[in-house]
Amino acid sequence: MEQITILEGRENHLFEKKTGAVQPDISCDTSSLSGSVSQRACVFCGSRVVLYPVADAIHLVHGPIGCAAYTWDIRGAVSSGPELHRLSFSTDLQEMDVIYGGEKKLYHSLIELIEQYKPKAAFIYSTCIVGLIGDDIEAVCRKVANETGIPVLPVHSEGFKGTKKDGYKAACHALMKLIGTGDTDGISKYSINILGEFNLAGEAWIIRKYYEKMGIEVVSTLTGDGRIDAVKRAHGASLNVVQCSGSMTWLAKEMEEKYGIPYIRVSYFGIEDMSKSLYDVAKEFPERPEIMEAAKQIVSEEVKQLYPSLQKFKKALTGKKAAIYVGGAFKTFSLIKALRSIGMSVVLAGSQTGNKDDYARLKEMCDEGTIIVDDSNPVELSKFILEKEADLLIGGVKERPIAFKLGVGFCDHNHERKIPLAGFVGMYNFALEVYQSVMSPVWQFAPRKGVKR
Amino acid sequence: MLLRHTSKEVKEREGLTINPAKTCQPIGAMYAALGIHGCLPHSHGSQGCCSYHRSTLTRHYKEPVMAATSSFTEGASVFGGQANLLAAIETIFSVYEPDIIAVHSTCLSETIGDDLQQITRKARDDGKIPEGKHVIFASTPSFIGSHVTGYANMVTGIAEQFSVSTGTKKNQINIIAGWMEPSDMREIKLLSKKLGVKIVLFPDTSNVLDAPQTGKHVFYPKGGTTIPELQSTGDSLFSLALGSISAEPAAIALEKKHKVAFETLDIPIGLTATDRFIMKMSEVANVSVPDEITDERGRLVDVMADMEQYLYGKRVALFGDPDQLLPLTEFLLDLNMKPVHIVSGTPGQRFEKQMRQLLDARSPETNFRNGLQADMFLLHQWMKNEPVDLLIGNTYGKYMARDEDVPFIRFGFPILDRIGHSYFPNVGYSGALRLVEKLLSAIMDRQDRDALEEKFELVM
User: Fold this and answer.
1) Where in chain B are the domains?
2) What does the pLDDT read at residue A448?
3) Percent of chain B having pLDDT more than 70?
4) ipTM confidence
């Protein structure tokens, strides 16, 4: 493993934090190098993940079958009611459609779907091929909207037209068309939208409960456990609370411009950031001090309960080292703090889609010697996990087996997590999962660095 | 009731696919390429394709899956992807150091007209392919065929682009693996060894996608058919293609190029398909069947006899891929079970004809459809109209099984929620025995669950 080198052209995408040394700005926000084994996805993927949790809409993928097949119910974004989002709808474009155009097929598919499922709205995702053959999906959507009376929204998510982030934006664009079309009567002055929370394993429900306990009305969650009617009236809220900065900041800015709704950025991971996200919202409503009182009450109650239960994990995990490689950089910040609260240090911190500011902040937060990396690949990840002797990798589906092959623990902090990691209870779950994996007896039998232990 | 919207009334749909029983060609090409030793699959298209295929294969195998991508941008889509692919080839050889890059196309690169043959030739002419290294390719646009034909195209590419004939025949048989699991490939090798037949099996994903924990992450695990083995396929005595859709095209390519005669058999799933495989092997290699194999067969038949009363007449719905569905259906019929509905998203008249033939002879009233709109929505509608006792298919069948309260056996690709498929074979007599065990367990568990107390049997 010692001979592993960094991919040519990747040198500027990573550095090791060293005090005193002059370190260039990290290179990020760029597309991946041709020929790299990147862990990233495409524009379509970005749109699909943002809109996916809207459960009473149909999500029709206009393209060849793969794009619909690979995104069929792979995210645990749960719904309390309808579950249309968990089905897979495709126009399954064939060679003849590519030659003669797929508009007719799209039209018929939409009419059939709407008749069958009676959805509140329809999202139509255009894929690479649709961008090339030039189907006028806007026109088809307009026609179907007129005929059926429901919003039919095109999502311009051609895979090659940028990065996953551009897909987030295309999704937000579709949401913007819905927002402002609903009735805002009766919405409290003390109200928020929760943005960038996708209700994985029911996390949005946990967060929502905290805010409601504070006396705040949650107008809509974008898009976790999402409903079209709630999205339509989102402009009636007084504040946008944005998590997962990568996907929803654009929407928050648009809403600020168009509807004058201010926004704040929060994170629900870890005690520190979770508490802060309650306080920060309370601060936005200073004329009602009872909101802040309630926030303090929640934090103190939750922490009182949580803190002792974490000690067992902390005792076992103190001194252990973690590597973090997740989608958005904002999550990385929270994870570093959360890991520190259970005694663990971070030896590698990276993201798929962070920007310059994110990496500057990461550098500030991290310990000396930490590797900071943008858009990494399995070679780099393996190299640094071994060199820095990490005991844990936090990542997504493609990273899990790499960690296990290397003989280190793993925690899925991506969309395949099965238990809620947000909120105070989420911190407990997170600590438990990390503890379970890092301290598993299996590592006694598993060599690391190819050496038996 | 996740599928509560599924209506009983079946209407012809114009274009819409709901809950597909297939996926696109490139993932098949990627899977096939992983069965070559030292090979890095390369997806010539957008970044998402590669990421999705790797994720899906990782979920199915719980193994790291390495593959590179051309990372198309808007520019590439306007000016063509040649520059991207040439740059990719250079990067891959210098950094990831594979022996082989296996490039497959995507809907995007095909539609803009990238010619993989021309680009790889240019890469060779420009000196971007180091001495002793290889770049092979297959055309796999997503708007044609399915993951199964994508697999076939890459296997054909492997056969065509590696095989050499030296003029001297080698005493060996080519076995071209149709789409099967690493465990199945392992079993094919084991059976050949027991028969005493020297074979070249390709592709071979055993020891690649079922690799042991070693404390290292290696890009190129131990397994996979090697370059010398692949080159020698042109000198083999005979080719056996296991699967008419996923393996036969490669056998045809070897016959055309090097006059290696071939025969196509079903993937040896079940008793009679395994019989045919063993008999054919013994015939073409001129070996007798050892007692060890005869006894294996005997044990399978013994269990089939012991348990025939529990299997008789059980109604089964199944969906999946052509080359597995054919022998599986045959096996269900051999077990005196009743295939009621069969669906495959993979299009093609060849498969349709073969399945019709089998059904016409032994179960003419079975509902069968493949190709467009042959999806799980249709299958579910059929199940509502004519209920079944058992459902067999990939993980996505679990919604139907739950909604209709039918026992479910996972079989096919992908299996995202169970392990076992990579480790225990479905092929050969031992694979068939495992299938019988699974069928019986599913049926008997259900019988136990539903039995009235006085009818709750201890001895079954």
Assistant:
1) 25-162, 173-287, 294-454
2) 77
3) 100
4) 0.95
User: Do the Cβ atoms of A133 and B111 come within 8 Å?
Assistant: yes
| Range B25-162 has CATH code 3.40.50.1980 | yes
Q: Does A140 touch chain B (CB under 8 A)?
A: no
User: Which chain A residues in 7-26 lie under 8 Å from chain B, judged by CB atoms?
Assistant: 7-9
Candidates A124, A123, A130; CA nearest to A158 is: A130
- Say how far apart CA B277 and CA B20 lie, in whole Å: 31
pLDDT for residue B363: 97
Query: Is B194's Cβ below 8 Å from some Cβ in A?
Result: no
Mind telling me how many Å the CA of A442 is from chain B's nearest CA?
Answer: 11
User: Which residues of chain B lie closer than 8 angstroms to A452, CB-CB?
Assistant: 215
Q: Given this chain, do its domains A43-178 and A191-300 carry the same CATH topology?
A: yes
Same fold, B173-287 and B294-454: yes
Beta-carbon separation of A31 and B73 below 8 A:
yes
Q: Please give the CATH architecture assigned to the domain spanning A43-178.
A: 3-Layer(aba) Sandwich (3.40)
B173-287 belongs to CATH 3.40.50.1820? no
Give B220's contacts in chain A (Cβ within 8 Å): none
Q: What angle do CA A408, A412, A416 make, to 5 degrees?
A: 140
* Count of C-beta atoms within a 10 Å radius of residue B47: 28
Q: Do A88 and B84 touch (CB under 8 A)?
A: no
pLDDT digits (tens, 9 = 90+) for B417-449: 999 999 999 999 999 999 999 999 999 999 999
Contact state of A69 with B22 under an 8 Å Cβ cutoff: yes
Q: Tokens 């480790």, residue?
A: B423
Supply the mean pLDDT for chain A.
91
* Confidence at residue A3, expressed as pLDDT on a 0 to 100 scale: 47
Under DSSP, the state recorded for A441 is T
What CATH number does domain A11-18+311-445 carry, 3.40.50.1980, 1.10.10.10, 3.40.630.30, 3.40.640.10? 3.40.50.1980
What whole-number distance in Å separates Cα of residue B360 and Cα of residue B228?
Answer: 44
Domain A191-300 has CATH 3.40.50.1980: yes
For residue A126, the distance in angstroms to the closest alpha carbon of chain B comes to: 13
Among B77, B91, B142, the residue with its CB nearest the CB of A8 is B91
Rounded-to-5 percentages of helix, strand, coil across chain A: 45, 15, 35
**Residue that the structure tokens 């409903």 belong to:** A227
pLDDT digit string, tens, across residues A170-193: 999 999 999 999 999 999 999 999
Q: Do A64 and B90 touch (CB under 8 A)?
A: no
- The DSSP element (H or E) to which A264 belongs, if any, is strand A263-265
Contact check, Cβ <8 Å, B17/A401: no
Q: Please tell me if residue B95 touches chain A, with a CB cutoff of 8 Å.
A: yes
A404 touches B at CB < 8 Å: yes
pTM, whole model, 2 decimals?
A: 0.95
Q: Is the dihedral of CA B64, B67, B73, B78 positive or negative?
A: negative
Task: Give the confidence band of A357 by pLDDT, cuts at 50, 70, 90.
Answer: confident
Q: Which residue of A has its CA nearest to B27?
A: A66
Under CATH, to which class is B294-454 assigned?
alpha beta
Smallest CA–CA distance from B74 into chain A, residue: A161
Task: Report yes or no: A60 and A46 within 8 Å, Cβ to Cβ.
Answer: no
- Would you call A160 and B53 a contact, using CB atoms and an 8 Å cutoff? no
Q: Domain segments of chain A: what residues?
A: 11-18+311-445, 43-178, 191-300
* Token pair belonging to A15: 């550095």
All residue ranges of chain B with pLDDT < 50 are none
